[in-house]
Design a protein that fits this description.
Distance between the termini: 37 Å
Helix content: over 70%
Strand content: under 5%
Order of helices and strands: HHHHHHHHHHH
Structural class: mainly alpha
Radius of gyration: 19 Å
Shape: globular
């Protein structure tokens, strides 16, 4: 007797994984802000990535033998983009509210989608996003820190690279092997910056405990969930879900840090989210499949 064909894998699982990852990531980032006065942004990034690397290496136990040159190149790019993105992002949230930082950071993947689309209509989404950022600055108390904005924009550029590198790494490595190796590379990259900024404060027991909590919430859980999700949903669908991150970040900043969001600022965040989703939808039919 023939068995009925297996039902297609539902996409809701991938969607839920991404949303849970975004929530835990922003809660962890909110906790990290509270530790900045002691170890600084670079010190917090080092604690986060080192603990995340140790946890993932213990869980995955990746075998380093037999990895091809292409595999090493992919995981190295993934690790460099991961470490750089975190260093830039934490520098930004040390100067800007969490919701503001993430809203500006989203412009990186958004602009990439607009460029890939190669349509005049796609630039309307870019204009809408810029209008949203304008409202965001107008709705904030005082002018936005230009250095913080520059760090957020740079983090957005590396975020776009992280999405592509994560997807390709997940297709080459089994399980969490690629993520564990990439996290170790990112941790090594961050070490000189963290030691230079925090020094001996990095090994104080209370700081280590908070660093472990941030690592689990902001790196281990969300990166693992995203890597699994990218095997279940398309890169364009993933980008649409990530476009919702400014709203989640603003909520985390409000509940954990007490960072208020005015009506004008909220409108700016909504405009950027709409523009991000529209840009991804415009580009998804033109993006070639990942080989």
């Amino acid at each position: 007797m023939l068995e009925p064909p297996a039902a297609p894998r539902p996409r809701i699982g991938g969607v839920a994984l991404v949303l849970v990852g975004l929530l835990t990531q922003d809660i962890g980032a909110s906790i990290a802000v509270l530790v900045f006065p002691t170890v600084g942004p670079a010190g917090m990034v080092t604690l986060r990535l080192v603990f995340s690397a140790l946890i993932l290496l213990a869980i995955a136990r990746p075998r380093l033998g037999g990895i091809s040159r292409r595999g090493w190149a992919l995981v190295a790019i993934f690790g460099l983009s991961l470490g750089t993105m975190n260093l830039l992002f934490y520098q930004a949230i040390s100067r800007l509210d969490l919701g503001t930082t993430v809203t500006i950071e989203v412009l990186g993947p958004l602009i990439l989608s607009v460029i890939v689309a190669r349509r005049a209509s796609a630039w309307l989404w870019a204009a809408l996003a810029l209008a949203g950022v304008g409202l965001l600055g107008y709705g904030s108390f005082g002018d936005l820190d230009p250095v913080g904005v520059a760090f957020a924009l740079a983090a957005g550029a590396t975020w776009a690279g992280y999405i592509l590198a994560s997807r390709r790494t997940g297709q080459v490595f089994q399980g969490l092997d690629g993520l564990a190796i990439a996290m170790a590379i990112g941790a090594v990259l961050s070490l000189p910056f963290g030691i230079a900024q925090a020094g001996a404060q990095l090994v104080q027991p209370p700081i280590l405990a908070l660093g472990l909590a941030v690592a689990v919430l902001s790196s281990t859980i969300p990166y693992a969930l995203e890597l699994i999700a990218l095997r279940r949903i398309s890169a364009s669908a993933f980008s649409v879900l990530m476009s919702c991150s400014p709203a989640i970040a603003a909520a985390a900043g409000f509940f954990v840090l007490g960072q208020t969001v005015g009506w004008i600022q909220a409108a700016g965040i909504v405009l950027v989210i709409i523009a991000s989703i529209g840009a991804v939808r415009s580009a998804e039919r033109l993006l070639p499949p990942v080989p």
